[in-house]
Amino acid sequence: MQSGERAGEGTVASARTVQGEVERALRKICLQPVRIAGASRTDAGVHARGQTASLTLPDDVQIPTSYLCMALNSNMLKDVSATKAEDVDADFHAQRDAVGKIYVYSFFSRRERSSMLRRDHWHMRFPVDPAAMQKAAQHLIGTHDFTSFATQLKLIQSKRIEEGKNELTTIRTIKHIELSEDPRIPGRFMIEVEGSGFLYQMVRTIVGSLVDVGRGYRSPDWMAEALAAKDRRKAGPTAPALGLCLQKVIY
Amino acid sequence: MQSGERAGEGTVASARTVQGEVERALRKICLQPVRIAGASRTDAGVHARGQTASLTLPDDVQIPTSYLCMALNSNMLKDVSATKAEDVDADFHAQRDAVGKIYVYSFFSRRERSSMLRRDHWHMRFPVDPAAMQKAAQHLIGTHDFTSFATQLKLIQSKRIEEGKNELTTIRTIKHIELSEDPRIPGRFMIEVEGSGFLYQMVRTIVGSLVDVGRGYRSPDWMAEALAAKDRRKAGPTAPALGLCLQKVIY
After folding, report:
1. What is the DSSP letter of A152?
2. Chain B interface, mutation test: which of A68, A109, A115, most B Cβ atoms within 10 Å?
3. Residue ranges, chain A, pLDDT below 70
């Protein structure tokens, strides 16, 4: 049987990985090793609400696709869960076939720490100007070379072979970036970014740069300069991993 | 110095209590025991984003009110935090002077469990009809005898002495109840309830009853009957504690 497991969520703990957790559960279910191909390698500490992965179940495994999530969830620790499974074409690949991704970065701005937001929000003790951040973010929309927002160390690894052309590229398309404040919790913000794909630590560097604008270190228009420079040193700092969440992979 | 600490947030863990945690921190800061009066006694497992408490600092303690939260936060474990402190009249009392409270109950409806919502959402594996729930909720708005929605065991303890009249009452006013679905996460719902005050387990029983309507066990108009009966046995089950959060205390 061909089966594709798509959509899941989880948090990468220190030594464990979500992929490892899912593959361990699959091994228990199928009584043999089964590899999965995840859509996105999230860094340690980054959450994923909408991670997806593709896999091929061995021919001798008779589990209906509609039971696969239940079977996985019964065999994984509580901090990883499978939310949806569906059949796909045999040549479907969760990473290769993705045409876009949506990330959400959450942070809160106030002097006092928060017990309730501590696990998945960046806490900044300074105030930010959301209008300036929103204005700065608009400079990133469109198709650009995002070299300035990619961590150099692993840049080569995260370059993507453009379809048709056999070359690595740092060009990506950002469809929208939106900053919104939680109406129930003043000072709690979310930045939603949708793009064709992202370079290594690109979302976190965009957020760190926007926050530099929000706190008044930079003007909103500086964002355009940082982008045009194609130099990581011209952009802002990389925001902490814990605030980032892979919200959705688009096919 | 008179000082009132108002607004805090935290989760009650098994043996520890938020009040105990705050008082232990105050003892360290003041080098003597200081008692606080909380606005609301939340059950074990219930979260509180907007809990408030009043206290009187000893005369010989020279800590400015603006530093009190930082001092508390430095002396409490990560799952409890103080968010705001302000001076109030010496006769202010966090519970007695409260004129209203807002609770938010969070749940999600889908077959698969969720690693990300597991700590503070009720998970129901059946689908619900939000329109029916919203319709049922409207029957509760206004001033009513909410005996049907209060756990009998402790009812006498949670009765409140009405101002002026020296008697216990089960009459409360609900200002609004609103059910909303998270636009980012289909199947994730929040019920926000604002009232003058609440009987023991009243919000959880309202939610349990609304969910009975949402899953089709009851019609929306049954809610009016359950309310009129003034009998706990006529209402629905008590929803689990973990989905409940005290959002705000109104003065």
Report:
1. G
2. A115
3. 1-15, 153-167
Please indicate if any CB of chain B lies within 8 Å of the CB of A113: yes
Q: Is the pLDDT of residue B10 over 70?
A: no
Share the mean pLDDT of chain A: 89
Whether B247 has its CB under 8 Å from any CB of chain A: the answer is yes
| A165 part of contact set with chain B, CB < 8 Å | no
Choose among A149, A109, A144: nearest CA to A126: A109
Choosing from A43, A79, A87, A120, the catalytic residue is: A43
Structure tokens at A210: 């926007």
For residue A236, the 8-state DSSP code is -
> Is pLDDT above 60 for B160?
no
| Tens digit of each residue's pLDDT (9 = 90 or more) over B170-226 | 999 999 999 999 988 999 999 999 999 999 899 999 999 999 999 999 999 999 999
| pLDDT value, residue B154 | 54
Dmax over CA atoms of chain B, in Å, equals 61
CA distance B138 to B222: 12
- Positive or negative, the Cα torsion across B86, B88, B94, B100? negative
Radius of gyration of chain A (CA): 19
B81–A10 CB contact, under 8 Å: no
CB B127 within 8 A of CB B215: yes
For the record, the structure tokens of A71 come out as 């079977």
Q: CA-CA distances (angstroms) from residue B36 to A44, A175, B71, B98?
A: 40, 51, 16, 15
Query: Measured between alpha carbons, how far is B177 from B154 in angstroms, rounded to an integer?
Result: 24
The first and second tokens of residue B212, run together, are 């009975």
